[in-house]
Specification:
Blueprint: H1 7-11, H2 19-33, H3 42-58, H4 61-83, H5 104-111, H6 115-141, E1 185-190, E2 218-219, E3 228-238, E4 245-251, E5 256-263, E6 267-274, E7 279-285, H7 289-305
Parallel strand pairs: 1-3
Antiparallel strand pairs: 2-5, 3-6, 4-5, 4-7
Helix pairs in contact: 2-3
């Protein structure tokens, strides 16, 4: 069976490796490919970014579980393709030091192969047709005994109901279009205060895409802005934290990041212009300039001691 390249491969550990082994592998690779030891080496910077991404996923139990489920789904599809002699089975599954691709496109392609999907579609169409038939035939099902030949009488109006103060405003005039009611969803992330950790925090002078960290809180240049709209706003409150944070707004439906931002220590940032949807706010502490020199010294001491 063709090999599925995973984040475990990026960290050079087994899939069932405990967190201690994952952490030790990350520390060893960080010492080897750290930008401070490979200045001007684009390949080392790219590998370091991939190693950071792999560790961020495998050190988080929830994200690691999602990654394991993606691996199982990919291996099932490869096995199915190889058993049916499909051309796609011979396609390479990735090279060393590559981030695994998102699995949502493959899950969509597998739907049409699943007979349960077709049974569900047929059942939905059948239920919809029956409901439509009942709605059309409902007036004819009423017994004629309920019919009245007595002419309808209109009771005189004795009082006018009081207006509802909580109702929406309605435009005046017979030809006025209906009013448009808009909603703005606001989400807030409060970052807790903690001390910088040189082993796990981003101690690089630049973002993973190679762009330098901004001087002020805001979006990081070089990243695309997705899901543009006017329905949602995300407030990142980093006022209690002594370190800057690298923030990603993750679209849970599209399985992709749509915003990349940098929030200074003891600062706040409002991320607006998002379309309605389901999002997850992910962040990582960044070692600031004050602690960067100390982290570099610690890494040098560990390298001299052979840790």
């Amino acid at each position: 069976m063709a090999k599925i390249h995973t984040h475990y491969d990026n960290l050079k550990v087994a899939r069932g490796a405990p967190q201690e082994v994952v952490r030790a592998a990350y520390k060893a690779l960080s010492q080897k490919y750290h930008p401070d030891k490979n200045q001007g080496d684009e390949k080392a910077a790219r590998i370091m970014a991939i190693v950071n991404t792999a560790y961020n996923i495998l050190s988080d139990p929830t994200r690691r579980k999602e990654h394991d489920e993606w691996i199982a789904a990919e291996e099932w599809e490869v096995e199915w393709l190889e058993s049916s002699s499909g051309e796609e089975a011979a396609r390479p599954r990735g090279e060393n030091w590559e981030t695994p691709p998102p699995a949502h496109n493959r899950r969509r392609r597998r739907l049409w192969r699943d007979p349960r999907w077709w049974f569900g579609l047929f059942g939905g169409v059948t239920v919809g047709a029956v409901c439509a038939l009942l709605l059309v035939k409902q007036p004819r099902l009423l017994p004629t005994a309920l019919a009245f030949n007595k002419p309808e009488t209109i009771a005189p109006v004795t009082s006018v109901p009081a207006p509802d103060p909580d109702a929406w405003a309605i435009p005046t005039g017979a030809n006025s279009p209906p009013a448009v009611v808009k909603a703005l969803a606001v989400t807030q992330l409060v970052v807790p205060a903690r001390q910088p950790e040189c082993d796990t925090d981003l101690a690089t002078p630049a973002a993973p895409n190679g762009e330098p960290w901004p001087d002020q809180s805001g979006y990081i240049p070089g990243y695309p802005l997705g899901n543009n709209g006017r329905e949602m706003t995300v407030v990142v409150d980093n006022s209690a934290n002594a370190s800057p944070v690298f923030v990603k707004i993750f679209d849970l439906e599209r399985r992709s990041n749509v915003r990349h931002a940098y929030v200074l220590a003891n600062n706040m940032l409002t991320i607006d212009g998002l379309a309605a949807g389901k999002y997850e706010v992910r962040y990582q502490n960044v070692v600031g300039s004050a602690a960067h020199a100390e982290c570099s010294k610690q890494a040098a001491r560990r390298a001299d001691a052979g840790v």
